[in-house]
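ok so for the tutorial part 2 we go from a plain amino acid sequence to predicted structure tokens. step 1 is just haveing the sequence, like this:
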Amino acid sequence: MNHDDASYIASLLYKRLSGTITSDEEVVLQKWLKENSANEAFAQQIEEDDFTKEIARRSPRYLSGLREELYAKIQQATGIERALSTGEAKVVPMQAKSRNRRPVLAYMRSNVVRVAVMLLIIAGVGALWIFLQRDHASTKTVKTIAVNNEIPPGGNRATLTLSDGSTIVLDSANIGTIAQQQNVAISKSAAGTVQYHVKGSGATSAMNTLSTPKGGQYKLVLPDGSKVWLNAASSITFPTQFATQERRVSITGEAYFEIAADAARPFYVKAKETDVKVLGTSFNINAYDDESEIATTLLIGAVMVSVGSRSQRLQPGQQAQSKGEELLLQKNIDTEAVVAWKEGYFNFQDMRLQAVMRQLERWYGIEVAYEGAVHNIAFYGKLSKDLTLQETLEGMAKTGLHFRLEGHRLIVTP
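step 2 — the prediction. this is what the tokens look like for a chain of 414 residues:
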């Protein structure tokens, strides 16, 4: 069976699961099933998996999207298989699980390529995974050493620095009013959101900074009603009340914004040398020091990104990448993947090992080191951010990599 045949059989299996297979297609599938017992076992394993029941409950519209995603993944996987034969790349199946469940990978070995399909539901998010396994490929077990050193996931942790230099540890602050600066009251809600309430006008504005450590994230409502979500190891500096002509803030790290519309007062975000001008919109800025570029991604509305003398207007689904004086435009961005961190999960789509590890460093408060010739392989999949570090590493168990945890230092070896 060649790659096209494998893709066709995968499509027939999908159609059978979704109830859209024709009688002629069923004949072809039955012929394939009867070729050998391994084919029958493979199909039975898929059909008896929990994901089949989940598919059955989904709407036709959802199934259509799932089918398109499956076909796209099959085409992508075919190219990856060719890379496997030359040692250029690896396919990494990512699994997610609840606290009470160990990751499961349904896969099949044969003398040809087999496509294994798994539907995982992570906090209401449907995800389709494909893993290619060749007969001679060896499966290595991840060795994670974390005895008596379980590292929990991050959470709502942040520090608010007031204009006089005093600080408030927000995760331990009481619910209600936590500070008063002239005519501005600062409160913390039961959900852990910090909000600024301006009463009257005329008072002198002061600058405050909200910062998150590694392993922390936080939501902030600015004095104008704009909402900001800070990712781990990030900060935002802002006035306690905005000027009458404009609104300006600056950030480090990563933040997602939902800006309150105000045509008379444009909103500006500064991240290093990059300036973003908006009127009312939703967008994400990734400006971590350890990333090679600053990425501004637009979800709703319109923004103008400027670096030096260069400017680029973005449309929804576009991303501006700035580095020094360079400014590049990327179209058709997977915005879901960009803001996955805000929704409580990691989204690794063709993401290289080192980029994945940088995210784990920030969320789990660890330091990652590499020993030996560790290949910068590609990862595909989604993982809940509620998992402990050890559980997350177990979800990466089919890479062939090994992990050793020494305190808060994670060592990656071939």
